[in-house]
């Protein structure tokens, strides 16, 4: 048996409970405030923040930015299924803002790079590489499903910085 990937838009789900769950998930994703998800990135880059970070949860911990990574993956998958203009606009906006936040050396995160220095020196920090992975995975999925060239440039920069 050969396993191969297939396009998301080639699948039609008809089970009412699953269709309902998809609709609810899409509504939830589109209800999130992208400026609040971007606040930590803007703060780290020294840019004005049009919104505050989400309170509670990951966004006020060393896992800040993790949520945006998951958000980008999920929204990119919605776009892959629907090719919806409103979803593409959200993704394009987030990626353009991330590009503004990215340092010249490629660094892009919700806290300064000293968190990685601390980890490399044996200090206790809470999973910055895992969080970076989530952010990068989201950015790469946006590129994969939308062809957004800004996403690819951001990913290249992050790869250069990590290297």
Description:
The model has no long low-confidence stretch (mean pLDDT 91). Helix 3 runs antiparallel to helix 4 and helix 6 (128-146) runs antiparallel to helix 7. This protein is an all-alpha fold. It is built from seven helices and no strands.
Helix segment count?
Answer: 7
What proportion of the residues form beta strands (DSSP E)? under 5%
Element pattern in H and E: HHHHHHH
Shape: globular
The pLDDT mean sits at: 91
Q: Tell me about the biggest sheet?
A: none
- Computed Rg: 17 Å
Total strands: 0
How far apart the termini lie comes to 38 Å
- Spans where pLDDT lies below 50 across 5 or more residues: none
What structural class results from the helix and strand content? Answer: mainly alpha
The helicity comes to 55-70%
Describe what is shown at a glance.
With 163 residues, the chain is mainly alpha-helical. It has seven helices and no strands. The longest helix is centred in the C-terminal third of the chain and has 19 residues, at 128-146.
Which descriptors apply to this entry?
163 residues, mainly alpha, globular
List the SSEs and their pairings.
Blueprint: H1 16-31, H2 34-45, H3 66-82, H4 85-101, H5 114-120, H6 128-146, H7 149-162
């Amino acid at each position: 048996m050969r396993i191969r990937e297939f396009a998301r838009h080639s699948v039609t789900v008809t089970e009412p409970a699953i269709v309902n769950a998809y609709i609810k998930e899409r509504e939830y994703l589109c209800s999130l405030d992208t400026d609040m998800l971007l606040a930590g990135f803007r703060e780290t880059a020294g840019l004005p923040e049009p919104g505050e970070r989400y309170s509670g949860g990951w966004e006020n911990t060393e896992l800040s930015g993790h949520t945006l990574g998951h958000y980008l993956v999920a929204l990119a998958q919605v776009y892959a299924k629907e090719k919806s203009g409103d979803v593409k606009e959200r993704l394009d906006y987030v990626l353009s803002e991330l590009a503004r936040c990215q340092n010249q050396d490629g660094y892009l995160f919700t806290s300064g790079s000293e968190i990685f220095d601390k980890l490399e020196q044996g200090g206790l920090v809470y999973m910055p590489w895992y969080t970076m992975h989530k952010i990068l995975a989201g950015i790469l999925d946006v590129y994969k499903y939308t062809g957004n060239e800004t996403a690819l440039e951001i990913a290249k920069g992050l790869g250069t910085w990590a290297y």
